[in-house]
Amino acid sequence: xxxxxxxxxxGLNLSEASPARVYDYLLGGKDNFGxxxxxxxxxxxxxxxxxxxxxxxxxxxxxxxxxLVGEIGLxxxxxxxxxxPTAENVHQVAHSVDPSVRVAYVxxxxxxxxxxxxxxxxxxxxxxxxxxxxxxxxxxxxxxxTAHIDLKRPVGLILCGILHHVQDEEDxxxxxxxxxxxxxxxxxxxxxxxxxxxxxxxxxxxxxxNTRYRTMDxxxxxxxxxxxxxxxxxxxxxxxxxxxxTFQESHPVLKLAVAGVGRKP
Length: 265
Fold this sequence. Notes:
The protein has helices spanning 19-26, 34-46, 50-72, 90-97, 110-119, 136-140, 143-148, 172-181, 200-205, 216-220, and strands at residues 76-80, 102-107, 126-130, 156-160, 188-194, 227-228, 234-235, 257-263. Helix 1 crosses helix 2 and helix 3 packs parallel to helix 4 (90-97). Helix 8 links the parallel strand 4 (156-160) and strand 5 (188-194). 35% of the residues lie in helices and 15% in strands.
């Protein structure tokens, strides 16, 4: 892959870091550029142990998918802001329970779409769509998506680590409300979001470029009109932990994100 000083593949604009590529870098991946690595190192300086938080985010995503498919019985999932492919992707976790589950990945990053489509070339039950969370009507009206996902039947909507990249002035609460409004009764919504605890570390993290650390009350607003699934909106390690959960649950970085699942009545 070309670096930031070389020719950018896929016609990418490398003038600023991509959240997906920064995430990939923090997971130890290779699908990133100098600008992404610089941002990753800046985040590391502000948030020592950030890799633990990233792994915990990935782990809770897997637990939620197994819950939605294995316990609730959903057979359709839409993952918005999917990021770059890595281990234990949503479709892989879902298909380990039932290979017939239909999964739609949605992202606005062309780099992500190239990788996702290559990964999914022979997987007829999984689709990658180019669309933007900030345009919910266009996203849910996408012809490929609506041919793949039946919006008249319950859906699992996954918003894992994406809403904190939407600025307040873009009204992420209204965007989420529009997405949820289009889902039928019996659908579920999963949200993972970075948390502003009001302490000194949170104040320094609020300076992080294009990332919004929100309070528990602000995050809870995303679930307006939904019935919260036990244990509610909680720290990432506390959402239905696996018996063999191995990451450092006491690490301070794990206090900087929360996760929750709500059901549309």
